[in-house]
Amino acid sequence: MSVFAAIKQHVPEWPGFRPAEWFRKRREAASGDERVPIRDWVDAGRPARVMGVDSALIWVTCALLAFGLVMVYSASVALPDSPRFALYSPTHFLSRQAVFIAIGLVFAFATTQIPISVWEKWAPWLFALAMVFLALVLVPHVGKVVNGSRRWIATAGVGFQPSEIAKLAMCMYAASYMVRKMDVKENFVKAVWPMAVALGLIGVLLLAEPDMGAFMVIAAIALGVLFLGGVNGRMFLLSVAVLLGAFTLMIVFSEFRRQRIFAYLDPWNPTYAQGKAYQLTHSLIAFGHGEIFGQGLGNSIEKLHYLPEAHTDFLLAVIGEELGFVGVFIVVTAFFWLTRRLFIIGRQAIALDRVFAGLMCQGVGLWMGAQSFINFGVNLGVLPTKGLTLPLLSYGGSGVVLNLVALALVLRVDMESRALMRGGRT
Questions:
Q1: In terms of domains, do 41 and 61 share one?
Q2: Given this model, what pLDDT does residue 424 score?
Q3: Cα–Cα distance measured from residue 120 to residue 176, given in angstroms and rounded to the nearest whole number
Q4: Is there a single domain that holds both residue 143 and residue 11?
Q5: Are residues 37 and 110 in the same domain?
């Protein structure tokens, strides 16, 4: 009787134990004549005692949602003092954000019940649906104009941004695209050109709103997934150069965008301080006022009608004023950890030969990382002002719901990867 048979005779409940594979790994890890105790053989064959989900990812997400709820309330509690929000109660934005989070959690739970293979099958159609929504928002009486931008579609008194759907759709479509183009990824015409056309069409629709910030995030997702999918380095650099050239031309030929760049470069100039750089200057004042430990939760001065959009685009400035450098550092660290974790889950899926799932996870990581980085940069004056919220934290229904759905997709990928590693099936 072989040693493997003898061991399995004593431990018949090992459904996922592969002795040859285990012995190979142990032999690689061991050095010299190191012997393997029989107890290690028994422990090695048992299924890993781990949860079926990434509990750390869930806890960090829940912590960011809870913290965002508190800060949205703090940043918006004084808004009813303004004539624009005179009909709102002090808890208006708090209650709506709580409802958005509840809806997002329901959608997220439903998302985790659908296998990734189904999402892969429907990825191109979801991308087409996102394009339809981006076109519909430009139709008069369908798209809602807010602050000079037509970015929302109002349904039953609630508006949603098609650009948020487009971000998630791009994560799926780019991953699906790379799987389908894997055999021709060295050919520019066959591998890169079709994606460039799709990205250009999205850019035209988004810039017509206008929403250059969302376009930058979607472009980062598309190019990042192409690069991670193995597109030739020269073709990738060429694509980046073309995109940067397009952004430069948009700034050169747009007086509005050009003035924003000048205001960003010299925000304290009296010409810009009360105009294009008004938000930036008051955001910087908030950070300066917060110093190291902040003025205390609820004690922000800038949120008292000095800093516009304090509960959305510039929520980080309120965090900096009330909780100081320490609070901002914790938020930045949390997003760094979240982005890194999404990439790790994606890499694990690719190692298990699940390329679509892995690239989609990394696309979501690019989304969270790029959007949070741009929001940090705008609030701190490192980047020109853009209308981008902070994922999971800022007030906004479609943003929070789609963020949670995207993270639920990653969670589903992780659940399937864990099942595979335990010898099961997805």
A1: no
A2: 64
A3: 6
A4: no
A5: no
Identify residue 148 by its one-letter amino acid code.
G
Contact 203, 215 (CB under 8 A): yes
Give percent above pLDDT 90 in the chain.
55
32 & 140 share domain: no
Same domain, 264 and 176: yes
Instruction: Note whether 255 and 261 are within 8 A (CB).
Output: no
Domain range for residue 34?
3-45
Residue 97 has pLDDT above 90, yes or no: yes
Residue 426 inside a domain? The answer is no
Q: Do 74 and 173 belong to one domain? A: yes
Radius of gyration for the chain, computed over Cα atoms and rounded to the nearest angstrom = 25
pTM for the whole structure = 0.85
> Averaged over 165-176, what is the pLDDT?
95
pLDDT interval class at 157 (50, 70, 90): low
Residue 234 or residue 40, greater confidence: 234
- DSSP state, residue 182: G
Counting every residue, how long is the chain?
426
Give the pair of three-digit tokens for residue 159: 């508006």
362 burial via Cβ count (<10 Å: 0-12, 13-18, 19+) = buried
